[in-house]
Design a protein that fits this description.
Layout: H1 3-9, H2 12-20, H3 26-44, E1 47-50, H4 52-68, E2 79-83, H5 110-117, E3 121-126, E4 138-139, E5 143-144, E6 146-147, E7 150-154, H6 160-167, E8 173-178, H7 184-190, E9 193-196, E10 216-221, H8 224-232, H9 249-253, E11 264-267, H10 278-291, E12 297-300, H11 308-330, H12 337-347, H13 351-369, E13 377-381, E14 397-398, E15 401-402, H14 411-419, E16 423-430, E17 436-442, H15 448-462, E18 497-498
Parallel strand pairs: 2-3, 2-8, 11-12, 11-13
Antiparallel strand pairs: 1-3, 1-18, 4-5, 6-7, 8-10, 9-10, 9-16, 13-17, 14-15, 16-17
Helix pairs in contact: 3-4, 6-7, 11-12, 11-13, 11-14
């Protein structure tokens, strides 16, 4: 292992310490990550548009600030990738859609504003499905993102580009977002950490239905400490998000590492309503057996999620009607099949359907909170299956039984979305096929800090248990491109510096 290889694998929080101590240069660090992107990205296609020249200018400025002894932000000098659903000033933002093929925003969204203010250096955008619809990161603008452990398999989504970039040490930090599992699922199957915060903790101005809590933005990283560091730089009230609120950012940056032997843990393979592959259920039970000695109590618990599937269908569809009504009216074929299906479902709903869904969500929420009268955490698998080929747009069946729609296989995460409790996906060894296994960790309502602390404690414990350690991809196998990853590209966007597998 070369020194540069070790540097790229170093956690972001340690890189920030080294920058502040003048032991590494932000300029040298950026160049190392750019070199890794150019060597590995052709094999996984995680990175889309880049802004290397601007990033280099900002890295030089960051270095001058360090040498001058100025005040440094918590992310000072750290390169970061921004999910291609979030507008970045002057940098191509396509949303994975031909409608935005040449869209170069004039301003940053508040998330990116805060990351820049904290000293992060926006280096690249990361790939997404069209408009974030679905958990297979592929679109006709950039092509497909392959899984770092096997590029012929999918990387999850919609934050698949971010997850794959982190797993390959192409960037030390990346942003994500999550409605039905878009942050947790790719983190799980790429072997990194993804944290879905409580709605409003990180303000999001791109949530059109501002009072609906199902969509959030959140951090992704290679360790719990990195995730907490990035999160702390983005939290707090903003007038663009009516759900946002004041919070102690410093407390989130350094959550307490909880004593696992004092925790009471509930676990479930399926929440009583989710289809889960038998082999994944077996893998999960074996992992519970390997970790149960860590806790004060570790009990299988039954849940009542009522009509969670129909409830999520309706509430999700409302957001698609709000976002894509004009585009659909103008030309339905301008939208991909996933987006079109969601819009059409929403357009057929009645007011009675919508009222019922919100009532059902409230009922599910209240029932779920009662588990925390006895337990501190709920554990489940993050995904119900091992990664499937990215050439399959979505999963059509589990255990031989057809699924109702293209996102039904995301149920393990979207039922948690409905209750709005903070949740993370933590690397937890591998599944029966040798692919990364994600453990979903769910905490109390608005208990974000405790979930971060529990995640850090679990991460430390798992490092000493071979069956639960975080897996790493073989990067030497990824130094040759996989041309098929971009085979669904029609016309590449213009007006941006890009690094892509062609």
């Amino acid at each position: 292992m070369t020194d540069r290889t070790a540097l790229l694998a170093t956690p972001a929080i340690e890189l920030r310490r080294l920058i502040g101590a003048k032991e590494i240069s932000p300029v040298e660090l950026l160049e190392a990550f750019i070199e890794r992107i150019e060597a590995i990205n052709p094999a996984v296609n995680a990175i889309t548009a880049t802004c290397y020249d601007r990033a280099r200018d900002e890295a030089r400025a960051a270095e001058r600030d360090v040498l001058a002894g100025g005040e440094l932000g918590p992310l000072h000098g750290l390169p970061i990738g921004i999910k291609d659903l979030d507008d970045t000033e002057g940098l191509l933002t396509t949303h994975g859609s031909p409608l935005y093929r040449d869209h170069v925003p004039e301003r940053d969204v508040v998330l990116v504003q805060r990351l820049r203010r904290a000293g992060a250096i926006v280096t690249a955008k990361t790939n997404v499905p069209e408009f974030g619809a679905g958990a297979n990161t592929r679109n006709v603008v950039w092509g497909a993102t392959g899984n770092p452990f096997d590029p012929l398999l999918n990387a999850g989504g919609s934050s698949g580009g971010s997850a794959a970039a982190l797993a390959c040490d192409m960037l030390p930090l990346c942003s994500g977002s999550d409605t039905g599992g878009s942050l947790r699922i790719p983190a799980a199957i790429c072997g990194v950490v993804g944290f879905r915060p409580s709605p409003g903790l990180v303000p999001s101005e791109r949530r059109l239905l501002g009072w609906t809590p199902i969509s959030v933005v959140g951090p992704m990283g290679r360790s719990m400490a990195d995730v907490a560091l990035q999160l702390s730089a983005t939290v707090g009230r903003d007038v663009g998000d009516p759900l946002s609120y004041d919070v102690d950012a410093a407390a989130l940056a350094a959550p307490p590492r909880l004593d696992l032997c004092r925790l009471r843990v509930a676990w479930t393979t399926d929440f009583g309503v989710c289809a889960v592959d038998r082999a994944i259920a077996e893998s999960f039970r074996s992992k519970i057996a390997a970790m149960r000695h860590l806790f004060r109590a570790c009990d299988e618990v039954a849940f009542d999620f009522g009509e969670a599937h129909r409830c999520f269908d309706v509430i999700r569809a409302e957001t698609f009607v709000a976002a894509y009504r004009e585009a659909y009216a103008k030309d339905p074929t301008s939208l991909g099949p996933n987006v079109r299906a969601n819009y059409e479902l929403g357009a057929a709903l009645s007011l009675a359907d919508c009222a019922w869904a919100h009532l059902e969500q409230a009922r599910i929420f209240r029932r779920f909170q009662t588990v925390f009268e006895q337990y501190d955490l709920v554990l489940s698998p993050t995904t119900p299956i091992s990664p499937f080929p990215w050439t399959e747009l979505y999963l059509k069946e589990i255990n031989g039984k057809p699924l109702e729609n293209y996102y039904r296989w995301l149920a393990l995460t979207y039922v948690v979305t409905l209750v709005t409790n903070p949740a993370l996906s933590l690397p937890c060894g591998t599944d029966q096929r040798g692919m990364p296994f994600g453990l979903q960790v769910i905490g109390r309502f608005r208990g974000d800090r405790d979930v971060l602390g529990a995640g850090a404690a679990l991460e430390a414990a798992f490092a000493g248990i071979p069956a639960l350690q975080r897996p790493r991809p073989d990067l030497d196998r990824l130094r040759k491109p996989v041309p098929a990853l971009t085979s669904i590209v029609t016309h590449p966007p213009t007006g941006a510096t890009t690094r892509r597998a062609m």
